[in-house]
Amino acid sequence: MDLLALAIGFVAGLRSMPAPAAVSWAAYLGWIDLYRSPLQWMGSGITVALFTLAAVAELVADKLPRTPNRTAPGPLVGRIVLGGLAAAGLAVSAGESLLVGAVLGGVGAVIGAFTGYQIRQRAVRALGGRDLPVALLEDLLAIALAWLVVSRP
Questions:
Q1: Directed axis angle between helix 98-126 and helix 2-14, to 10°?
Q2: How would DSSP label each residue in 55-90?
């Protein structure tokens, strides 16, 4: 469970909203059980819709030139919180501590934010300054990793 909490936090470090959106979808579809937990609301249809819309908006906004750096204090705190929320959901569904899950998710978000930033910067330089292909690949990686984490058997 600890590795899954770190992994979903890592996703939040790459893109903040796919992590809670994936956990919300997993709860909504019955892949994970948040029933009778403090995070039961994550499995509601309204939450799924809101998190999904926010994730799509983030995928678009990430490509805009005025989007702040993910390692800046504000965006980084948001990623820590959202990674912690997503990981807490996974922890609770596995009968583990919500708090431990949240902390691991936050740690994973920090790792993901700084690792993703460094890799993206190097890849963009290697492509002669072309950011869009790297950003799209990072989007796909975040979505695939989130799906992989929440769809585990």
A1: 40
A2: HHHHHHHTTSTTPPPTTSHHHHHHHHHHHHHHHHHH
Count of beta carbons in the 10 Å neighbourhood of residue 90: 29
pLDDT score for 31: 96
| Residues near 89 by beta carbon (within 8 Å), at least 6 away in sequence | 20, 23, 24, 27, 32, 34, 39, 42, 101
Give me the amino acid identity at 152: R
Supply the DSSP symbol for 30.
Answer: T
pLDDT value at residue 153? 57
- Residues 6 or more apart in contact with residue 124 via CB below 8 angstroms: 130, 131, 134
pTM score of the predicted model: 0.94
Give the integer Cα–Cα distance in Å for 35 and 32. 9
Question: Which residues touch 121 (CB under 8 Å, ≥6 apart)?
Answer: none
3-state secondary structure of 31: coil
